[in-house]
Amino acid sequence: MTSTRDGAGTLAGVQPSLRAWLEVSRPMLIGGVPVGDAPPLAVEDPSTGLRIAEVAIAGAEHVDRAVSSARAAFEADDWRWLAASDRGRLIRAAAAVVDRHSDELAQLDAIDAGIPIGLSRELIAAGVGSLEYAAGTAARISGDALAPSGLPGDRFGARVLREPLGVVAMILPWNSPAAMLLDKIGNVLATGNTAVVKPAEQTPLGALRVAELFAGAGLPPGVLNVVPGLGSVAGAALVEHPGVDAISFTGSTVTGKRIAAAAAANLTPVSLELGGKSPALVFPDADLDAAVETVAGNAFLLSGQFCTAPSRVFVHRQVFDEVLAGLCAVAGALVVGPPLDPSTTTGPLISGAQRERVLGLVGSGLLAGARAACGGDAVDGPGHYVAPTVLTGTTREMAVEREEVFGPVLSVTPFDGIDEAVRLANDTPYGLAAGVFTGGLATAERMTRDLQAGNVWINCYNAFDPALPFGGYKQSGRARESGTAAIDRYTQTKTVVTAT
Ligand code: ADP
Fold it and tell me: What is the percent of the chain with per-residue pLDDT over 90, rounded to a whole number?
């Protein structure tokens, strides 16, 4: 236990109960019990670079204990065998407790991941909405009763039952720590599974607090375990663990491939929500003001550290100058600053390393002939800030145009016709999302048909709903975890044929 923190300036802005929570070195949560017998990991506020908390960091032995606890909870009477309505009720109770603590969780994500407080509140509220939706999923799980065509109908009856998978390992990224867990955990639990969560090493706090709140709402011990740790240690131990029945990974494509390879050794099913290099296409018949606001608002959302960020903007040549000027005007009006300041629209990047990477990609593009219409450099200050940046003149040969930047950077490129727009948009190994801005039905339909992306937004962007499946084409992922896809993803079928 430590009584002072280097980041005391940051903590002065958070509510007293959260400040007190952060003063104590946070243990892992395994089987409903706090486990602190492990070395500490310092947690940094990315807006100052200073330490705000520390957590116990899991080794392989803690991961093993967490998987055993999750297994025991899965096999106990009080989770998967609960009446679906009772399981749904527990998830709804958890949603209500989280909702009551939503300000606290929003502050926690803000200081842990650098999310501007207004956005952080919206993300937590969306997470509560996902939980409430998932509470209903518990009662929506149904099987089939069939009269098999090849068996005599009067002598055989067949049923297809749906059963949970077992222990689900959830590996999470740093860009919206508590909010993303809230978004994803409901469907895992509603379908009767138990979970071991490994949050990102940069942002372990939100998952720990969410698990405490769930326990307070009556979730049985061991149903939700949290083991903060390094990807190469706790993460690797978790995905390689033979006691894990399914893996849900959200993060970079590089790590996703590594995890898929590790999972293959045990034939563990994996869902992967990976990176993107999403296009936004602006046609001349669009409501240009709305298109500009939407594209820029979403490209710079969370300082571009959002997997669906519209980072490649293709604009019809007729309206190119107007749209470019509009994007720069929005970028220039953004307020870059500390996350807890309510006027901040754009916070820091997660780490100094991430800032260096982003500036390196931008710099190499500029050296190769791209131009910064605005931004292009770091913002002074102790935190890891990069100015909102709009590039023109980028080419497919430049890494900044090819790779996921995960920073407040977009490129704008003109196109002349719809075929060229389709070709440019699809010319990427990623396929997470795409935005189309047009007033024409035919254009919208053509783009819907031809865009290779798991999510196509027309005259809107980042329009999420817990009822809708979300995920990527190509190297942006595999499988869907949300909405109508959740039951398929988190259950398996058992076919039962009965002779009568
Ligand atoms: P980034 O590169 O942006 O930090 P990653 O995709 O590497 O993001 O990380 C996302 C999550 O994956 C984090 O929780 C991280 O600890 C975890 N992770 C990283 N490497 C591995 C690995 N080899 N096995 C399991 N988890 C990993």
Answer: 94
71 conformational bin, left if phi > 0, alpha if psi -120 to 50, beta if neither: alpha
Distance, in Å, from the CA atom of 209 to the CA atom of 34, rounded to the nearest integer, reads: 12
Integer Cα distance of 288 and 296 in angstroms? 12
Angle at 21 between CA 19 and CA 26, to 5 degrees: 135
C-alpha to C-alpha distances, 88 to 77, 104, 139, 207, nearest whole angstrom: 16, 24, 7, 21
* Assigned domain for 462 exists: yes
d(CA 356, CA 366) in angstroms, rounded, equals: 15
CA 483 to chain centre: 15
pLDDT at position 9: 65
Domain with 28 in it: 13-274+476-497
Residues 318, 183, single domain; the answer is no
CATH number at residue 54: 3.40.605.10
Is the distance from CB of 189 to CB of 195 less than 8 angstroms? Answer: yes
Residues with CB under 6 A from ligand 1: 171-173, 198, 200-201, 231-232, 235-236, 239, 251-252, 255, 258-259
1 pLDDT higher than 70: no
Same domain, 221 and 370: no
Nearest CA to ligand 1 atom 4: 173
10 Å Cβ neighbour count for 264?
Answer: 10
Of 250, 252, 255, the residue with max ligand 1 atoms within 8 A of its CB, to mutate for a pocket test, comes to: 255
Q: Is residue 227 part of a domain?
A: yes
Q: pLDDT, tens digit, for every residue of 273-288?
A: 999 999 999 999 999 9
On whether both 146 and 242 belong to a single domain, the answer is: yes
443 shares a domain with 489: no
Is 103 within the bounds of a domain? Answer: yes
406 and 308 in one domain? Answer: yes
Report which DSSP code applies to 284.
Answer: T
Residues 484 and 351 in one domain: no
Locate the ligand 1 atom nearest the alpha carbon of residue 229 and give its number. 16
Q: Identify whether residues 201 and 286 lie together within a single domain.
A: no
User: So which residues are the catalytic ones?
Assistant: 273
The one-character DSSP state at 259 is H
What beta strand segments (E) does 359-474 contain? 371-374, 389-392, 409-415, 430-431, 433-437, 455-458, 473-474
